[in-house]
Write a structure and sequence with these properties.
Radius of gyration: 24 Å
Distance between the termini: 56 Å
Number of strands: 0
Strand content: under 5%
Structural class: mainly alpha
Number of domains: 1
Number of helices: 8
Shape: elongated
Length: about 220
């Protein structure tokens, strides 16, 4: 009973982590996500010791968020696999190798192993369903996140046109004075006000987006 409850709790907590990342339309703290990103950050910090220039460090840090995001999926799969293995073992399916083989066959819908008992079949179907749901959520999540990232960077790129590279407040005022007139700055501020509101909405709905670095980070 203890092994079954432990496995069930691991699966439920893993699902809460996935839901808070993929589905929940607000910022939500996930301890599992913090562990994954925190562990990866320690590895990145170690690699950064060998980077001498800012450009090299920035190029390395650009991979931090994408790698961390992709590491979440195998982490969730591993925890779900172990959780269901514990539940299969508690139901007397077999030894540790047998329950692990049944769990990975069910999670990845390989169909390599099965069980004929009623309760085992329910667990097998539920595990296969969770595996497919996580894949579907990831497929739908990544394009949405990269679209929000692209929308964020569009205004940053326009700032380089209006304020120089790197952006300078003095250069922006001089260019507006030469080309448009300072009275048109009111419309410019309205556009940036809308941009800040969009950033607040997108980065709250997609918390992982805050870790994605701008390709113009050095200029900004």
């Amino acid at each position: 009973m203890l092994a079954f409850l432990t496995g069930f709790l691991v699966v439920i907590l893993t699902l809460f982590s996935a839901l808070s990342t993929f589905v929940l339309p607000r910022a939500s703290r996930s301890q599992l996500n913090r562990i994954v990103f925190g562990s990866l950050r320690r590895v990145i910090n170690f690699i950064l010791r060998f980077a001498k220039s800012y450009q090299r460090r920035d190029a390395i840090m650009a991979y931090y968020a994408p790698i961390g995001q992709m590491l979440l999926v195998p982490t969730w799969y591993t925890l779900i696999l172990l959780g269901y293995s514990a539940m299969y073992w508690a139901l007397g399916v077999g030894n540790l190798f047998t329950v692990f083989h049944l769990s990975d066959s069910s999670l990845f819908t390989l169909g390599l192993d099965t069980s004929l008992t009623f309760w085992d079949s329910i667990l097998i179907f539920s595990e296969a369903m969770l595996g497919l749901i996580l894949v579907a959520l990831l497929i739908a999540y990544l394009p949405t996140m990269y679209y929000a990232f692209s929308r964020r960077e569009q205004a940053v790129n326009l700032l380089g046109v209006r304020a120089g590279t790197p952006p300078s407040a003095l250069e922006m005022l001089m260019r507006f004075h030469r080309n448009h007139g300072l009275e048109n700055l009111a419309d410019f501020w309205k556009n940036w006000e809308a941009w800040f509101a969009d950033i607040e909405e997108s980065h709250t709905t997609l918390p992982a987006l805050t870790f994605f670095r701008s390709p113009r980070a050095e200029d900004s």
